[in-house]
Structure formats: structure tokens, C-alpha cells
Specification:
Strand content: 15-25%
Distance between the termini: 81 Å
Structural class: alpha+beta
Radius of gyration: 62 Å
Bound molecules: adenosine-5'-diphosphate, magnesium ion
CATH superfamily of the largest domain: Histidine kinase-like ATPase, C-terminal domain
CATH class of the largest domain: Alpha Beta
Number of strands: 13
Shape: rod-shaped
Number of helices: 12
CATH topology of the largest domain: Heat Shock Protein 90
Number of domains: 3
CATH architecture of the largest domain: 2-Layer Sandwich
Amino acid sequence: MTTSTKLMLWLMMAVSVVMALVGVVLLQLRSSALEQDALNLVRAHARTLQIAIEERHSTDADKELKPLLERLVRENQAVANIILYDAHGAVLTAAPVGLDQAQQDTQAARQAMATRTEKQINRRIANQDVISLILPETDSGSPFGAIEISVAVAFVNTELVSERNDIVFLGLITCFTIFAVVWLVTRRSLGRHIHELVTGAKAVGQGDLSYRVATPSASGDFKVLADAFNQMAGSLAEQRQIAAQEAEARLDLERRLHHSERLAERLAAVSHLAAGVAHEMGAPLQVIDGRAKQLQEQTHPTTDKLQRNLKIIRTQGERITRIVRQLLTLARPVHPRLRPVDLRHQVELALEALETQAMQARVAYDHSAGQLPGALWVKADPDLLQQVLTNLFINALQAMPAGGTLRVSYSDAPLHKNGRAFIGLHVADTGDGIAAENLGQIFDPFFTTKEVGSGTGLGLSISSRIVEEHEGWLKADNWQNGNGESGAVFTLYLPQAQASAVKQKETAYELMAAD
Ligand SMILES: Nc1ncnc2c1ncn2[C@@H]1O[C@H](COP(=O)(O)OP(=O)(O)O)[C@@H](O)[C@H]1O
Ligand SMILES: [Mg+2]
């Protein structure tokens, strides 16, 4: 409900109450005035009658006066009854026809006669409420004592009802006029300003801080309100501008900080890589240099010596080539060609390829089926996946020089992350495990704990890069069980292949098999 409607309602209520009170008071006043009018009328009739009666000296009132009284009652609406009393207060005659003279209460008439004063009483005559006026006879020689003339209360009330209707009608017209005027005035002076302010508030609420409401020319509450509103919108706009500038400055600072951080990180990575390359390449290059020098110094080396040195030079050359190839893999962007691949099958292939090495190292395979039944479809590039699995298995074999068990298992259920499902693969060995201080570095390029020549420290960094390109991740940990067994465990997470893609692939297999 709007303020102006509420105002109107309150005003309507107040005006209605005042009008009702005025009406009641007016009716009250009119009621006694009407009663007085009626009494004055009957009094006038009574006086006339009194004069007429005083001239009569016969007591045969029934015969002489009754017709006169009856005519008076008949012809005057205001006159309800006329009763004539004798000198002793007994009823002589009464009008209209049928009014029983014998049964009238004569006590009031006697009192009026005794005090010789006019008396007014309210009483019931012939089952009708009346207001009676009793006039005692002034002439003491007259055979008549008093005359009672009455007016019906109903007669006065009928007049009153018609007056009340007039008052109600007038009241309604006055109310309506007041409301109409007030409504027009509030609409013009209140409604317009309120509407203006509401529109302004909406505009500012929707972010238009440049909106200003029209200020009324005349001073008043609305002018104060409109000025305050415009001031508020102005300072909001100012604050927003300041906040935006601050945010921009903060963003700029963050950008610069981030940029220098990235630069420092990259520099650190490059120097780390350079140190690694220098270290890895330094050893074979030194060997090559040494052997070449020997050959140079010996003017006539034996074929045997020549062959041995050349073989060493070639081996070291091959080592350098291997390192360079791996470095290239690390530097080159990996573009995996992803498709649904059965992870269990890929594991079997990689294990098979390393079977001879495992046998030589006296390492037994434990490739448990796990709880996930059937083929385990992941989204992967099979060649790159083979590279990762081979790296992990070779590391495990190298960690168990005195033999042990290479255990490959799968997570019991897919892992859900960011609305996607991932299949987990665990590669555990029974070697010495990874030293706690090395856990954070084993994925760094050139980090190795192996002797010079047996490890480049590039295997895990390449593997983790490949896995990240598959949108999966690789993590390292140590494990141990109650039987005193322990070792390192690597967990590889790869995205599960979509059921629809797998279906397509299975259909293709079936078609191939049918051919
Ligand atoms: N199965 C494992 N058990 C213990 N340590 C391991 C295992 N796999 C990797 N590591 C540690 O991580 C290091 C880095 O491994 P990797 O990147 O493959 O390089 P590299 O095998 O040439 O040393 C290893 O030198 C070793 O210290
Ligand atoms: Mg390795």
C-alpha cells in the first residue's frame, strides 16, 4: 500500500468519525427541537380549546364538546389524543372515537389542577407512547378542571427519521467532496514526488549512479529529501570510482609481482636445467676427451687398444645422444592423441616388455585384478602411456637390486574430482623407498640419486609432464604393511573414458573381429 493511499485511508477514517459525531449531535438537537415544535403546536390547540370550553357552562361535555374534540384530532396530525377532566379530576370526555375515558390515569391531571400549573408528561395512552400537556382551568367557576392534549412520540420520530436521512445524505456528500479534493492534492503534491524518488532509487540500485531526481522548486520535505538523495548518489559514484581505481592499481601490482615471480621461477628452472645438463654431459665428455687424448699421444697404438678406446668413446657418445633425446622430449610440447585405452592391457604390455630384466633382477610381478571388473577404459595416448609405465617399472626394478616384488593394482572405485571420474593405478615395489627429503624433488628434471651413468634424473619429470597433458596426475609415496614389507608406491590417475566413446571403440573391435 502506498503512503498516499495510507494517508487517504487515515483521513477517511478521521473525517468519517468527525462527521458521525457531528451527525449524532445534530440529530440530538433536532430531536429536542422537533419535540418542542410539536408541543408548541398542541399547546396552541389546547389554548384555543380552553377558550372554547370556558364559554360552555353545561357539564354535558359528551354531547357538546366531543364532536369538537374529535374534529380537532382528526384534522391535526400532530394531535394524538384530547382528554377533558371535570373540576374533581375525573374524565369528562375524550377523543378520538374509541378512546376509553373511564380507564385513563387521572393522577397527573389532578396534580396539575392542584398546583394550577401546566404539566408535561410522557405516558402511554391507548397503547401508544405520547407526550402529554395538561393545562388546568383558570376560571374557578367553570365545571371543567383541566384539558390534556397529547402528541404521539411516533409522530415526532417520523419527522426525525426524515431529518436523519437528510443529515446522512449531506454528510456523505461532504465526505466525498473532501476525499476527492484530498486525493487530487496528494496525487499532485505527494504521488509525483514519491514516484520520482522511487524511480531514482531503482536507477541507482541498478548501478546508474549518474541518475539525479528532479528537485521541487518550492522548499519543503520533498526538496530536502531529493537533495539528500542526489547527494547520496553523488558520493556513491565517487566511492565507486575510487574503489575501481584501487582495484586496478592492486591488479597491476599483482600482475607485476606475478610476472617477476614467473621470471624468477623460469630463471631458476633454466639454471637448474643447465647445471643438470652440464653435470650429465660433463662426465661422458670428460671420458671421451681422455680417451681421445690417449689415442693422440700414442703414435702407434695397437689395434686392440684403439678398438677399446673407440668403443668407450662410442658408448659415451651414445649416452650423450640418449640424454639429448630425453632433453628434447622434455622441451618438445607433448601432443597426446587421446582415445579410449584399456589400462589393464597397457600394463600387461609394459610388464611383458621388461620380463627379461625382471627375471635377471629376480623381481616377481604381482598384477592383481583389483575390484574394478573387466577392461579399465581411460582416455590416453597408448604410446605415451607405455613410456610412463615403462619409466615407473624400470625405476621399481632399479630400486630392488637384490630382488623383490613389483605390485601393480587399481583403485577400488573411480575417484571423482571437479565433476570428472579418474581411474587410479598403483605401482608399488619392495625396495628401500624414497627418502622423505627427496619426496618433493623426484619429479624435478635431472634429480637423481643414482650413480653417474645409471640415471639421468629425467624419467619422472618427463612422465609427470605426459600425465599432466592427459589431464591426470602422478604422485609418489612410501608404503609399508604389517608383515614388515615396505617400499615406494607411485599412483597414476587418468581420466576415465566416456561410456559413449568406449562403446564406439568396442563396436570397431567387433567389426574388425568379424572381418
Ligand atoms: N621406485 C622407486 N623407489 C625409490 N626411489 C625412486 C623410485 N623411483 C624413483 N625414485 C627416485 O626418484 C629419482 C628420480 O627418478 P627418475 O626421474 O626416474 O630418474 P632416474 O631414474 O634417472 O634417477 C630416482 O633417482 C630415485 O631417487
Ligand atoms: Mg628413472
